[in-house]
Design goal:
Shape: globular
CATH architecture of the domain at 95-301: Orthogonal Bundle
Radius of gyration: 24 Å
Structural class: mainly alpha
Strand content: under 5%
CATH superfamily of the domain at 95-301: MetI-like
Length: about 350
């Protein structure tokens, strides 16, 4: 297990190094002059020269790459051109809100998608299976912005069951100020017993979380169904039927264990996908996460902030895959021998 862990860590570090190099190249390919974006279009030559000196834009490319990697390792992710604050500080404020949204969506996706996939495999070619396949296909195919606007129109505007946008009622900042511990609002409200903000955040979270959860739930249901059907057709399943085990027992006790590995891998993939996919959802619901920060950064041609968002998403993706690889090694010892 230790060698498997070291091998996976080495692969993860190589991927992160590749992403850092790619991010540096993209920063240099983005049209426009970062010095102009920082100093302003009416800046004098002296002000532009000072900006280029500050950001090291006059150095050679190898020197710029070395300085970029050195700064990242030491925790300096650059200064945002549109906020004037360190990019790392901006990301530490924006990422927890995105993590809150994606975390809630993945919980919904797993709680719904996995049992539904098992149900479809149990009643293969029958009505429940047909319903699950149609529903999962719709969940995977429907555009997120259309689903977001539809839920807003029906459940927020027309029925008034949920708030239309925002993370929580801003008036609560005055009546029930929140003490921050993790910067994840719903977690901090729960830790500190701030029930007004906890309830308000939960209400605001329902609609955007359902939108983000649609695609992962559909994919998880489809893959769970497919892997369970494949496992139930293996030789060991035929032997179990011959011994006298019921079909439900074969699926839930024997086939399910073999189906866990691909589903775990998928969860890591949809986690990273949901963070990026959630950018559009955050824009529709005015959710204060990475999406809003990335949109403002792109609009102002803020290359340090854009690079910071890209690198953070890549690191989260790599870490998610690393965790899943370790879980797979625990669940199935055969994985460690690969």
């Amino acid at each position: 297990m230790s060698r498997y862990l070291i091998r996976r860590l080495g692969q993860a570090l190589l991927v992160v190094a590749g992403v850092i190099a790619l991010t540096f190249v993209i920063m240099r390919l983005v049209p426009g002059d970062p010095a102009v974006a920082f100093a302003g279009p009416k800046a004098s030559e002296e002000e532009l020269a000072a900006a280029r000196l500050r950001f090291g834009l006059d150095d050679s490319v190898p020197v710029q790459l070395w300085n970029y990697v050195r700064d990242l390792v030491t925790g300096d992710w650059g200064t945002s051109l549109h906020t004037g604050r360190p990019v790392r500080d901006d990301l530490m404020l924006a990422f927890p809100a995105s993590l809150e949204l994606v975390g809630a969506a993945l919980v919904i996706a797993i709680v719904v998608g996995f049992p539904v996939g098992v149900l479809a495999a149990r009643f293969k070619t029958k009505f429940p299976d047909f319903g699950v396949r149609v529903g999962s296909m719709l969940a995977v195919s429907i555009p997120v912005f259309w689903l977001a606007l539809a839920l807003q129109t029906v459940f927020a505007s027309n029925l008034g069951w949920f708030p239309i946008a925002g993370e929580y009622d801003n008036a609560l900042d005055t009546t029930s100020p929140l003490t921050l511990w993790t910067n994840i609002t719903i977690v901090d409200a729960l830790i500190t017993g701030n029930w007004p903000i906890f309830t308000s955040t939960l209400q605001h979270l329902v609609l955007p979380a359902l939108v983000v959860a649609a695609y992962p739930a559909g994919v998880i249901a489809q893959l769970t169904r497919a892997t369970l059907i494949e496992e139930s057709g293996q030789d060991h399943a035929r032997l179990e039927r011959a011994i006298g085990f019921k079909e439900r027992t074969i699926l839930t006790r024997f086939a399910l264990r073999g189906a866990l590995n691909p589903v775990l891998s998928l969860i890591a993939l949809v986690f990273a996908y949901s963070i990026v996919n959630g950018f559009l959802v955050e824009a529709v619901f005015n959710w204060p996460g990475l999406g809003r920060y990335a949109a403002a950064s792109i609009k102002s041609l803020d290359t340090p902030a854009i690079a910071g968002v890209t690198l953070l998403v890549a690191i989260v993706y790599v870490l998610a895959n690393l965790v899943v690889d370790l879980l797979q090694g625990v669940v199935d010892p055969r994985v460690r021998a690969r």
